[in-house]
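Thread title: Can someone regenerate the structure for this chain?

I was given the following input by a collaborator and told the matching structure tokens would be attached. They weren't. Posting the sequence so someone can regenerate them.
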Amino acid sequence: MAPCPALLLASCCVVSSPEPDVNELRDQLRRAWSGAAPGWERRQAKLREATAPVSHWLVEAIRPQPGHRVLELAAGVGETGFLAAELIRPGGRLISSDQSQEMLDAARERAEELGLDNVEFRLIEGEWIDLPLATLDAVLCRWGYMLMPDADAALAETRRVLKPGGRVALAVWESPEAVPWAALPARVMVSRGLADPPKPGAPGMFALGDRAVLEGKLEQAGFTEIEIEPLDFEVRHPDLEDWFETQLDLSPFLRPTLAALSEAEREEFRRAVLDEGRAYVTSSGEVVFPVRTLVAAAGA
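Best answer:
Regenerated them for you:
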């Protein structure tokens, strides 16, 4: 089994050897997230419940007002931006964006279920936002910037499209130790030679998890009044099998990687991951993962 280089996102490898150029990497990421969209749609209710503290912090941090124009980058199925859409009525508009059309399709269905009529959906790459200068009141991005091949360009573009006094609010994962819920399967993949450890400075799940690094990048992009803090929450599953199946659904790389293994190898991997997760099983049999993310807000 040949290892593939990894950007430890939700669980596994992103790029293949030899290392691709940036444009090829973007294409790989786009295809991977498009393939993961059905799983995100299936799990959106559980994710919405578990990650609600993060979404609410971000929305409060942009200080939404009726009439505001808000962009959500890397929106996925859209649940964070949809909270803001409710608060910018009347007259306000949310642009829910992602690099994956399949993610946007899932978000559009959810918006229709919620009866939101002030949302538009656009394919947008965070590193070049196809919007005019200084036309937005706020930008939201939950766990997106660290995955972009050029986070500096994405933050600079965010600053460009914000009006003077506009706000950005974002979340990034802190460290593998702070997110065992997603990091344990990735650790097993690395230990079994199915993925390489992430290269320092490469985009990935924990690329912006250092507070000083994140603050420096926001300052470099021209943001002021920067606020960064840790936010703790929990992710719960009824049992270990549900956790494992959830990881298969959410990771854009775990299921495709396992599909290339033999049945015996897949089962061996599954058992190894479940063994790693046993430390988080409670006396009732429920699985409870403590999770820590960094949340940040800044002014334009």
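Residues 22-176+198-234+291-299 form a domain with the Rossmann fold fold (CATH 3.40.50.150).
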